């Protein structure tokens, strides 16, 4: 009888130990998940603070009219496909594209503000993207297919009163900071890319991000519209 009681006692102790291990493991896992989530939120808060008004958003640039001139230099453009898996949606019907929005972005978290991977990583954190990204060497990175709606424009209004600007626009990001504007390589690639897009779509409007959302956006920074428009005409 005593032996039987001891066996029952050992069995109960094992059950208690197993329950303790389970509760401890579950609690440790819950704490780990909490700190991972907290770290992500802190990163987002840090980004929001550092990026300020220029960062593109999921929510839904003076009005620029241009005379198109010259040939489309598509053969001279260095375009690299780097399609992302976030920051866009597939439209229910084909898009009618007539607008280009020009942005500025840079890597605020890393040691190199001109890092392509750093900028794309920040886009991923926010779940946003532009169709194209132009680095300091003039290399064009294709991030989102033109047929898809990229989350780049944010809340804004066109001069003709239209909203939901993401639906009918192409977003182009230039990598430059608030103190250092685009360089010659970037202007050349931007002009060539815009001409290429105009050969595919009837582009009627080219605007800066600040021109559609002046209350909350300031980019593209230090952008030379005169240089850009002259390049478009040539």
Characterise this structure.
Its EC number is 3.5.1.28. It comes from Candidatus Nealsonbacteria bacterium CG08_land_8_20_14_0_20_36_22. InterPro entries: Amidase/PGRP_sf, Amidase_domain, NAMLAA_amidase_2. This protein has 234 residues and is an alpha/beta fold. It folds into two domains: 2-52; 55-233, Lysozyme-like, CATH 3.40.80.10. The chain is 37% helix and 13% strand. The chain has four helices and eight strands, in the order αβββαββββαβα. It has helices spanning 2-51, 116-126, 184-200, 225-233, and strands at 79-81, 88-89, 99-105, 132-134, 140-142, 149-150, 169-175, 205-208. The chain has a six-stranded mixed β-sheet with strand order 1-5-4-7-3-8, covered by helices on one side. A two-stranded antiparallel ribbon has the order 2-6. It is globular and about 40 Å long. The relative contact order is 0.19. Residues 1-9 and 28-66 have low confidence and may be disordered.
User: In total, how many beta strands?
Assistant: 8
Looking at this structure, what is the CATH superfamily of the largest domain? Peptidoglycan recognition protein-like
| Low-pLDDT stretches | 1-9, 28-66
Spatial order of the strands in the main sheet?
1-5-4-7-3-8
Query: Given the C-alpha coordinates, what overall shape results?
Result: globular
CATH architecture name of the largest domain = 3-Layer(aba) Sandwich
The helix-strand sequence is HEEEHEEEEHEH
In whole angstroms, the N-to-C terminal distance is 103 Å
How many structural domains? 2
Structural class: alpha/beta
Largest sheet: 6 strands, mixed
Amount of beta strand = 5-15%
CATH topology tier name of the largest domain: Lysozyme-like
CATH class of the largest domain: Alpha Beta
Q: What is the average per-residue confidence, as pLDDT, rounded to a whole number?
A: 81
Radius of gyration based on Cα positions: 26 Å
Q: Give the % helix.
A: 25-40%
């Amino acid at each position: 009888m005593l032996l039987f009681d001891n066996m029952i006692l050992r069995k109960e102790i094992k059950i208690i130990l197993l329950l303790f291990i389970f509760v401890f493991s579950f609690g440790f896992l819950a704490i780990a998940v909490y700190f991972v989530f907290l770290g992500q939120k802190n990163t987002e808060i840090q980004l929001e603070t550092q990026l300020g008004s220029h960062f593109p958003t999921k929510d839904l640039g003076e009005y620029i009219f241009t005379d198109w001139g010259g040939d489309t230099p598509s053969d001279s453009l260095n375009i690299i496909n780097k399609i992302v898996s976030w920051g866009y949606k597939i439209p229910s019907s084909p898009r009618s594209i007539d607008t280009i929005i020009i942005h500025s972005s840079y890597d605020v978290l890393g040691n190199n503000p001109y890092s392509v991977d750093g900028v794309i990583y920040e886009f991923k954190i926010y779940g946003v993207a532009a169709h194209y990204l132009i680095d300091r060497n003039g290399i064009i990175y294709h991030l989102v297919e033109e047929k898809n709606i990229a989350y780049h424009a944010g809340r804004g209004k066109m001069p003709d009163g239209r909203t939901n600007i993401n639906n009918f626009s192409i977003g182009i990001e230039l990598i430059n900071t608030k103190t250092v504007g685009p360089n010659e390589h970037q202007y050349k690639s931007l002009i060539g890319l815009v001409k290429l897009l105009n050969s595919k779509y009837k582009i009627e409007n080219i605007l800066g991000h600040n021109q559609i959302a002046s209350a909350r956006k300031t980019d593209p920074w230090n952008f030379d519209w005169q240089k850009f428009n002259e390049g478009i005409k040539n």
